[in-house]
TrEMBL record:
Chain spans, region Disordered: 147-172
Signal peptide: none
Pfam families cross-referenced by the UniProt entry: DUF1003 (PF06210)
Superkingdom of the organism of origin: Bacteria
Organism this protein belongs to: Blastococcus tunisiensis
Biased composition (Basic residues): 162-172
Regions that span the bilayer: 44-67, 73-93
Species lineage: Bacteria, Bacillati, Actinomycetota, Actinomycetes, Geodermatophilales
Name of the protein in question: DUF1003 domain-containing protein
Keywords annotated in UniProt: Membrane, Transmembrane, Transmembrane helix
Length: 172
């Protein structure tokens, strides 16, 4: 049985608007993100400021070029049109980013769960190795047992170590 479609992933198929226009949601989204990215730059603000200053200066000081006298109604209309298109484009870009963030968060949760399971497995393995190592014979134990079995009666590892320590530090 097929998995149901995820709601946080765009379909990616072209949609028909009207009878003649097809829009690819991914292309529209990429365009919206590019516009939103540009609208948030200092370059855009600088260019817009220069254009507004030139517009106002020409309409105030150049008497023959006045196409938009003092209340600057045409300039206000241009700003309104810009805002009418900019706001939805910015919201579309934010929604796409939120969808990507949601998918990334889900992938992070899955990765964290797998890492947690791996860590717990390694902790159990390490604990079992510690138990197994605790049951292993040490070098000194094997040496003392060999000395005892051969009937050598010689010094075992502990006595030899104590003698070597007294030779190095006779005060103790």
């Amino acid at each position: 049985m097929a998995d149901p479609p995820r709601l946080d992933v765009p379909r990616g198929q072209a949609r028909r608007i009207g009878s003649f226009l097809r829009l690819n949601p991914d292309a529209v989204g990429a365009f919206a993100e590019a516009i939103a990215r540009f609208l948030g730059t200092g370059r855009f603000l600088a260019v817009q400021t220069v254009l507004v200053i030139a517009w106002i200066a020409l309409n105030v000081f150049a008497v023959r070029l006045r196409w938009d006298p003092y209340p600057f109604i045409l300039l206000n209309l241009a700003f309104s049109t810009q805002a009418a298109y900019a706001a939805p484009l910015i919201l579309l870009a934010q929604n796409r980013q939120a969808d990507r963030d949601r998918v990334q968060a889900e992938e992070d949760r899955v990765r964290a769960a797998a890492m947690r399971a791996d860590t717990e497995y390694l902790a159990r393995e390490l604990a079992s190795l510690r138990v197994a190592v605790g049951e292993l014979a040490t070098r000194d134990f094997i040496r003392s047992e060999l000395n005892r079995l051969t009937g050598d009666g010689g010094d075992d590892g502990e006595k030899r170590e104590k003698k070597a320590k007294k030779k190095r530090d006779p005060v103790t």
